[in-house]
Structure formats: C-alpha cells, structure tokens
C-alpha cells in the first residue's frame, strides 16, 4: 500500500512539473532568434526584438513562477515521502518478509512491477529536476 502511495505521489509530481514546463522548448526557440529578415535594417530588428521581449517576458516570468511553485510542492512531497519511508523502515522488517512470503505469485509480480515503475518515475523526476535547475541557472544568468 505504501509503495502504491509512493508511486501515486511520484506520478502527481511528474504531472505537476510537466504542466509548469511544457512550453519551454517553444519559448527557448523564440528567444534564441537573433535575426528575422536580412532586408530590414538592424535598428528595426532591435526595436522589434525589444517589443517582443517586452511582450513575452511576463509569460516567461509566469512560467518560471509556476515552475518554482511546483518545485516547492515537490520538495514538500519529497519530505513527506521521506518521512513515510523512515517510518516504514523503523517498523520491524520481519513483518515485511512475512507479508511477502504469504503473497501469491501475481501479487509478488505486481509488487515488482510497481517497484520498477517507481524507479522509472524517480529517474524521470530527477531528470525534470535537473531541467528545472538548468532553467533557474539560465534565468539567474540572464538577470545579471
């Protein structure tokens, strides 16, 4: 039951991060564009680029704040899950082995499948966390 709760929490965390960062590739491509037309003088291009920056910056800040809020929620969930893990580890382990010994093959397979799924979700959460960290570093670098 605790394993399912952990998997559910990890899945919800993954969905929360995806919602906060789903538009990042498009926004990055828009911001990386340097020149639009070679037939327009450089001053016009700079003026339009500044206008575009003024128009897009609030949206970027909104996405970053959503990502930061999502990160805070994930940190809270992580601490709650860590507390659950510590609480379950402090219980006698003989109870866990007795439960597994009494389980049917289907239940054991399901438990193994859930463990693999949990590991995949943890790896995916770590990748998403790395992306969020990279975004924060990039944002900090742009502010300087």
UniProtKB/TrEMBL annotation:
Alphabetic keyword roster: Centromere, Chromosome, Coiled coil, Cytoplasm, Cytoskeleton, Kinetochore, Nucleus
Subcellular location: Chromosome, Centromere, Kinetochore; Cytoplasm, Cytoskeleton, Spindle; Nucleus
Any single Pfam family the record assigns to this protein: DASH_Spc19
Highest taxon in the source lineage: Eukaryota
Main location (coarse class): nucleus
Entry GO terms, CC: DASH complex; spindle microtubule
Keyword Zinc-finger among UniProt keywords: no
Signal peptide per UniProt: none
One of the protein's GO biological processes: attachment of spindle microtubules to kinetochore
Protein name from the UniProt record: DASH complex subunit SPC19
């Amino acid at each position: 039951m605790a394993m399912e709760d952990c998997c559910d929490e990890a899945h919800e965390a993954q969905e929360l991060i995806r919602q906060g960062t789903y538009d990042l590739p498009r926004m990055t491509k828009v911001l990386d564009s340097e020149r639009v037309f070679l037939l327009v003088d450089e001053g016009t291009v700079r003026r339009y680029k500044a206008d575009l920056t003024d128009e897009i910056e609030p949206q970027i800040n909104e996405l970053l704040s959503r990502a930061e809020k999502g990160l805070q929620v994930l940190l809270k969930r992580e601490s709650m899950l860590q507390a659950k893990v510590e609480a379950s580890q402090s219980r006698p382990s003989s109870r866990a082995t007795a439960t597994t010994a009494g389980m049917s093959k289907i239940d054991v397979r399901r438990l193994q499948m859930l463990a693999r799924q949990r590991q995949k979700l943890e790896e995916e959460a770590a990748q998403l966390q790395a992306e969020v960290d990279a975004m924060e570093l990039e944002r900090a670098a742009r502010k300087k």
